[in-house]
Specification:
Layout lengths: L12 H22 L1 H9 L19 E2 H10 L16 E4 L3 E4 L9 H6 L7 E4 L8 H11 L3 E3 L6 H10 L4 E4 L1 H13 L4 H4 L4 E4 L6 H11 L2 E8 L3 E6 L6 E3 L3 E6 L13 E7 L9 E7 L1 E2 L11 E2 L4 E2 L4 E3 L2 E3 L1 H10 L5 E8 L2 E9 L8 H15 L5 E5 L11 E3 L4
Parallel strand pairs: 1-13, 4-5, 4-6, 6-7, 7-8, 19-22, 20-21
Antiparallel strand pairs: 2-3, 8-9, 9-10, 10-15, 11-12, 12-13, 13-16, 14-15, 17-18, 19-20
Helix pairs in contact: 1-2, 6-7, 10-11
Bound molecules: zinc ion.
Length: 417
């Protein structure tokens, strides 16, 4: 059986870089020629398009946020003047803003890599419970499912009762949608007197558009026998990353260049550090270079045992605005939640202050049980903190149980700016 979707997924680091650099250079040259808006951006920053030859050169260009794109689209409707006028566009999507995006092409592999990695293929009957209406999700996921040979039930956002009916009548084997909707479908099936695991055949689920909470994942996998996979993308740039069967990070799609940058400077951070996910999709239709997603993540460069060589994103740690920078490194509330979960939901709070010119990170921890505060416990806590948050703790302050209430901010920034 084929282990990978195509040979690109096993390219060496050097091979991938060379090919992607070539595609990028081609895209920039074509964009400069075809899009007067892109030409203006280059000219105003005094950048010669011929000088953008590698992914490192992208740093010379500004990051375009969703807000900025909306602004640009208002000035040059409908696509901000970033499209290639010589290529017919097959469909137009919208996302909140409103932002309009030309669909790339039906030939594109959008989401197919993700479905392949989830083991979906010929013989699968996939229920696509994403909206087919205005937004990109439904139709692009549909195309991806067809690319791997699955039969699609385009159920869209029909009621959970109808979804249960379709799953039962059509012997659906895979679910594509949000985790919360799958949960309500399962609840509805119980209400109708079914046992989801025994009575139905749904064994795989691919999720997007919503975070998959660890307890929910466990419920799907353990209780309902469904293998779950996360997918990540944005309407503006298509699919960006997807989970493989190892479920330890999301492989970056071969058609995209992903940078992890410091949102304040637009410069790449070191591998393993938290930053904003910035995406450039290599294509010749929509010349959106360096799209700033506003999502925070970090890059895993270690090899994955699945055989795919593409670097992985370590999930999404939150939105840029929620994170706080300590000694040049971001910490996000989601990282602290993850850490708390590793210690039986230990109530905690990070306090960032300043001593002279130095940032000081103090962790306030509740003495919720007798182990908390012992040397062994503390060393273990510090070690896991460093692993999850990258930053080192300066002080630990133990407080009485019940002091850190859920209304308190997970990160308290006491620095004066
Ligand atoms: Zn993998």
């Amino acid at each position: 059986m084929k282990r990978l979707f195509d040979e690109k997924e096993s390219w060496t680091k050097e091979e991938r870089k060379t090919r992607q650099d070539q595609s990028l250079s081609r895209m920039v040259k074509l964009g400069y020629k075809k899009s007067s808006v892109l030409k203006k951006i280059f000219d105003s920053h005094k950048i010669n398009p011929a000088k953008i030859k590698t992914r490192e050169d992208l740093e010379k260009l500004p990051v375009t946020s969703r807000e900025k794109l909306v602004e640009m689209e208002m000035q040059h409707p409908p696509y901000a003047g970033l499209e290639n006028p010589s290529i017919p566009i097959d469909r137009i999507f919208t996302s909140p803003g409103p932002v309009y995006e030309p669909h790339l092409s039906e030939m594109d592999y959008l989401w197919a890599r993700a479905f392949f990695a989830a083991g979906i293929g010929p013989g699968d009957i996939a229920l696509n419970a994403f909206s087919y209406h205005l937004v990109a999700a439904g139709l692009t996921f549909h195309n991806g499912l067809r690319k791997v040979g699955a039969t699609v039930v385009p159920s869209g956002t029909s009621s959970s009762q109808i979804q249960v009916q379709l799953i039962k009548d059509l012997k659906v084997t895979a679910y594509i949608g949000t985790p919360s909707f799958l949960m309500s479908i399962i609840d509805k099936s119980k209400e109708l007197g079914y046992n989801f695991k025994k009575d139905f055949r749904v064994k795989k689920a691919c999720f997007a558009a919503e975070p998959l909470l660890p307890w929910l994942r466990q419920t799907f996998e353990k209780e309902h026998g469904i293998a779950t996979y996360q997918m990540y993308g944005a309407t503006e740039v298509g699919d960006v990353a997807y989970e493989c069967s190892r479920k330890s990070g999301w492989h970056i799609c071969e058609e995209t260049i992903v940078e992890i940058v410091d949102p304040a400077t637009g410069k790449n951070v070191a591998p393993g550090e938290l930053g904003e996910v910035v995406v450039t999709r290599l294509n010749d239709i929509f010349f959106l270079l360096r799209f700033g997603t506003g999502d925070l993540s970090l890059l895993i460069t270690k090899k994955c045992s699945c055989g795919r060589t593409a670097y992985r994103l370590a999930g999404i740690a939150g939105r840029v605005g929620d994170a706080v920078k300590v000694r040049g490194l971001f910490i996000a509330p989601s990282q602290l939640k993850l850490l708390s979960g590793k210690f039986e939901g230990l109530p905690l709070q990070a306090v960032v202050s300043r001593k002279g010119h130095e940032d000081v990170l103090t962790m306030r921890l509740e003495k919720s049980n007798i182990q908390v505060g012992t040397t062994i416990w503390e060393n273990n806590f510090k070690k896991l903190f460093k692993e999850i948050c990258t930053v080192k703790i300066d002080n630990i302050q133990y407080v009485e149980a019940g002091t850190i209430t859920s209304e308190r901010k997970l990160i308290l920034d006491e620095r004066q700016w």
